[in-house]
From TrEMBL, chain A:
InterPro entries: HRDC-like_sf (IPR010997), RNA_pol_Rpb4/RPC9_core (IPR006590), Rpb4/RPC9 (IPR005574), Rpb4/RPC9_sf (IPR038324), RPC9 (IPR038846). Belongs to the eukaryotic RPC9 RNA polymerase subunit family. Gene3D superfamilies: 1.20.1250.40. GO terms for molecular function: nucleotide binding. PANTHER family: CALCITONIN GENE-RELATED PEPTIDE-RECEPTOR COMPONENT PROTEIN, DNA-DIRECTED RNA POLYMERASE III SUBUNIT RPC9. The keyword Nucleus applies. SUPFAM superfamilies: HRDC-like (SSF47819). It is found in: Nucleus. This is DNA-directed RNA polymerase III subunit RPC9.
TrEMBL record, chain B:
It comes from the Eukaryota. DNA-dependent RNA polymerase which catalyzes the transcription of DNA into RNA using the four ribonucleoside triphosphates as substrates. GO terms for biological process: transcription initiation at RNA polymerase III promoter. The lineage of its organism: Eukaryota, Viridiplantae, Streptophyta, Embryophyta, Tracheophyta. The keyword DNA-binding does not apply. This is DNA-directed RNA polymerase subunit. Its main location: nucleus. It is found in: Nucleus. Residues 8-64 form the RNA polymerase Rpb7-like N-terminal domain. Transmembrane segments: none annotated. Belongs to the eukaryotic RPB7/RPC8 RNA polymerase subunit family.
Length: 221, 204
């Protein structure tokens, strides 16, 4: 009887580097067995990349995907069908601006930022990083000075702040609206304070902008 | 940072998985094969996103399980050049900085991509070998307290080495980053300047 083809225990594979042409390079870490070799496809191991780029994903979408498998509900991390490596990605994303985002906010941001003619890469960067100040958005936008004259970059930052700012901390029971805002701002971080104060001045301009955009949309309809 | 990739793979479903509904069994097998592994020029496999097509189910003589041709999509970690990413400081030595995302460790900011002029000195923090300091008027220290923003300069997939010793330290995917730009580097560097800007706005 012919001997069955060799099978390699998956547990001993530290990593696979799968190159083109469907050759499989396998590294096995067992002391008496240290070889590297290229194994030609057999029927049982054959991989083909059909589309390397089937669409970019925002950090939010990946976080949402892992969450939908039950990441946030399972504190033991044993029950949900999520691998330890996936949990590491989850931990990273939960600590990033993505944890405060929603699908609706992202769509709205995309709508509102159309007028700035941003490249896809710039939009992805902005959604993932949430720059809330000029100095944070500077490394993201190419040829800033040419494309954004005057206050336009400030406006874009304002859109980001409005769409993606983290929710304010729990307000105290209301006595007056102004007093409420004061307490919330003190609890937030110092840089948030700076931005909120700046945004009051911009708010008037923003309202004008919004009316203009709304009028444009109405005209189109 | 993340892309979907459409992959086709022929796999053998081992007998102990045949009790599960077929999609689950195949998904588990795919995860076992691909997760946390690097595919050259495609990236690091994060998750199996969905299964598009399952064909086959033949049993080859001598095998205990059936062979399937599966078409599925995977979430891949593959940053693009120019992407801004926030990371933690893992190592700081005379080569530069080594950053980590938790799920991915091989991010290198070499000396020439640190803001200039920078110098290093022995680190008081025993976790790191040296401490890098950017001299720009004040001294700006790079230490492990902060998150560090960097911009992706290149993503390389070095070929596998032949010698065993090199294999132990080998990384199949290496990201080179730069922090030599306004807004990059430790996050705290730029928070202070935001405060100053806000104060100036108030005065004017």
């Amino acid at each position: 009887r012919p001997s069955p083809p060799p099978r390699f225990s998956i547990n001993t594979l530290k990593w696979i580097r799968l190159g083109y042409g469907n050759h499989l390079l396998v590294y096995i870490e067992e002391l008496h067995f240290l070889k590297l070799f290229a194994v030609r496809l057999s029927l049982s191991l054959e991989m083909k990349i059909i589309e390397a780029n089937a669409g970019p994903l925002t950090n939010f979408e990946v976080l949402d995907f892992i969450n939908s498998k039950g990441a946030s509900r399972d504190t033991t991390r044993v029950i949900a069908p999520i691998a330890p490596s996936e949990y590491k990605v989850y931990d990273y994303l939960a600590d990033s601006p993505a944890c405060n985002q929603t699908r609706e906010k992202i769509y709205e941001f995309l709508e509102r930022s159309k007028r700035y003619n941003l490249a896809k890469a710039e939009m992805l960067n902005i959604i993932n990083i949430c720059p809330t100040s000029l100095v944070e958005i500077d490394p993201i936008i190419e040829q800033c000075e040419d494309r954004f004259e005057g206050n336009r970059l400030d406006e874009l930052v304002q859109v980001v702040v409005e769409m993606f700012s983290p929710p304010p901390t729990q307000p105290e029971p209301r006595e007056g609206i102004d007093e409420d805002k004061g307490e919330v701002m003190e609890e937030e971080q110092i840089d948030e304070d700076g931005i909120n104060e700046a945004s009051d001045e911009e708010a008037a301009d923003e309202n004008d902008e919004e009316n203009a955009v709304a009028e444009q949309i109405n005209e189109e309809e | 940072m993340f892309y979907l990739s459409l992959v086709e793979h022929k796999l053998l479903l081992p007998p102990h998985r045949l009790g599960l509904p077929i999609q689950d069994g195949i998904k588990k097998e795919l995860e076992l094969i691909f997760l946390d592994k690097v595919i050259a020029d495609v990236g690091l496999c994060i998750s199996v996103y969905d299964i598009r097509k399952i064909e086959g189910g033949f049993i080859v003589a001598g095998d205990g399980g059936s062979t399937y041709a599966v078409q599925f999509r995977m979430i891949m970690f593959r940053p693009f050049v120019g992407e801004i990413i926030t990371a933690k400081l893992k190592e700081s030595d005379t080569d530069g900085l080594h950053l980590s995302l938790g799920f991915f460790d091989d991010i290198h900011v070499p000396v020439h991509l640190l803001p200039s002029p920078s110098r290093f000195e022995p680190s008081p923090d025993t976790r790191y070998k040296v401490r890098w300091i950017w001299e720009y008027g004040d001294e700006f220290i790079i230490d492990g307290r902060d998150k560090i923003k960097f911009r992706v300069q290149s993503v390389k997939y070095p070929p596998m080495p032949d010698e065993l010793e090199q294999l132990k330290a080998f990384s199949p995917m290496v990201i080179t980053g730069t922090i030599d730009y306004d807004g990059l580097g430790p996050v705290s560097w730029w928070e202070e300047s935001q405060e100053k800007d806000a104060e100036q706005d108030e005065e004017s």
